[in-house]
Amino acid sequence: MYNVMIGFADDFAQALKLSRETEIPEKVTINGETLDYTETPNEILICGMGGSSIGGEIVRDYSWDSLEVPLRVIQDFNPPASLNKHTLVFIVSYSGNTEETLYCLREALKRRARIVAITSNGSLKRLLAKTGIPFFKVPEGYPPRGAVAYLTIPILVTLEKIGLLGIPCNEYDETMQLLRDLKEKLSVETPINQNISKKLALELYDTLPFIYSYKPYSCIASRFKKQLNENSKMHAKFEELPELGHNEIMGWQYPSRLNNFLSVVFLRGKGEHPSIEARIKFISETLRENGVKTCEIKGLGYSKLVNMMSLLYICDMASYYLAALRNVDPLPVSLISRMKTFVEEKAFNRNQLESEIRKLILQ
Ligand code: PA5
């Protein structure tokens, strides 16, 4: 797991190269209907679960102030009623076998939407092979959450290729360079006093962490919460500013014995609004008065992309070091796997869903 996680810097560069090489066709004919990928969509839906949904969250937050087409991340069986033939749908599943995501695929096909798939294998790869539907092949052998670069960059690059998003080349270059430098600084060989991830892990050790952030960094806070769940096998909570200042904050009003066991991490980065800065100052002071441990991690570099990706790298590695401190193996997610098996035995008929999807492709 260590190699997968510290390898993020290399994966980022490789994922960018592979994504740029993958062609998005102008037209695809499915079931007698020709879909025009050059037409501007009315809406973009990114369907995926868990480790396969983080790419969607990152793209959503990155493009929040520049993408003129509405974009939603769908973490459910049912896509929204707005899904129709003018929608561009990304179907993202690392394993290619995730029930919720396959249901979204079925709906996208039924409603004649344009589909872009991202997967390494499984039902998704089997079903879409030879259909002509654009398909990003993610390398095999990763745990899904470890393939984050491959599950994010194809979406960004596709949106660029179809002219909906413009990411300056120097943002990518700065990000690749800075991630390469960070790789050494976050590595297991770098001692704790020079290693931000190890320091963060130690701060959070034996606490229940609350991760607070704001757009475009909220997706990284959400990712960190999930990495703490899956890698470090612990509870964590995520809330977003400014909304948390209108409700969540009240939980900190009174001192409590519980406060000794809680910690709050603020994820911050370039472009912070003065009103956000003021809110963080107020909340940090309140927390300290009430005996709650606080810390903050700042994104590095100049551009938005590098700030987001450096935060992700630092937090991901912190979840790895926290697993080591807690003496747990960061790789297996046995409860997730057991629940999937249980559901497949009790409720999910994969063969039936696959045959419904096949009919929609082949009729
Ligand atoms: O990290 C994990 O293993 C999970 O969160 C999975 O990503 C999630 O269960 C969905 O599976 P997949 O990514 O294969 O679609």
Model description:
With 363 residues, this protein is of the alpha/beta class. The chain is built from 13 helices and eleven strands. Helix 3 crosses helix 6, helix 7 (169-185) runs parallel beside helix 11 and helix 9 (218-230) runs parallel beside helix 11. It is globular and about 65 Å long. The site of 5-phosphoarabinonic acid (PA5) has 15 residues, from loops.
Number of helices: 13
Percentage of residues in strands: 15-25%
Number of strands: 11
The chain-level mean pLDDT equals 96
Any guess at the CATH architecture of the largest domain? 3-Layer(aba) Sandwich
By CATH reckoning, the class of the largest domain would read Alpha Beta
Shape: globular
Considering the chains and any ligands shown, give keywords for the structure.
single chain; 363 residues; alpha/beta; Rossmann fold; 2 domains; 5-stranded parallel β-sheet; 13 helices; 45% helix; globular; binds 5-phosphoarabinonic acid
Give a concise summary.
The chain is an alpha/beta fold and 363 residues long. Helices cover 45% and strands 15% of the residues. The chain has a five-stranded parallel β-sheet with strand order 4-3-5-6-7, sandwiched between helices.
